[in-house]
Design a protein that fits this description.
Length: 185
Amino acid sequence: MRHPRRAADAALEADASEADDRAAATAALVALFREHQLALARTALMIVGDRATAEDVVQDAFIDLYRRIDRLTDHDRMLPYARAAVVNKCRTVLRRRKLAFRAGRTHEPPVWSAEAAAMLGEERREVFLALRRLPHRRREALVLRYYLDLDEREIADVMGIGVGTVRSTVSRALASLADLLKEDS
């Protein structure tokens, strides 16, 4: 039979260990946010097309990560998980826009300001606008590959598809993008 005091001490130690784990996971998540929030927001911007929505997507992804902090034991996997969460939330935004469009409501991103257009440059703006015209999956693949510089395996993990599908999607996306840019010139 266990001694009641020893059982209570063991329970306190377990609670302290859980608190330490949670504090470490929270610190890792805060560091991840500070280091990668801007890149993730830019990624979301390339997918959804407007800054405010992109920022909301990233904030929502980090809120969801925090809510699941107790289940995030491998801190090295937080960045891939955050990327996947951002891409999935971008997909949700685009699905909602599609439904709204079918209902007769359209989403109009903010108009390019003169300052933003000058900073971005006309050529980059044309590529950005052509990229926005691509189907969602192709746009995601290109943004992850050439903007975040992820390898095929990482893209497959983020998008939830096979490596071969990543290769074909990126190839088709590049061909479509080239066609769109030729049309615009």
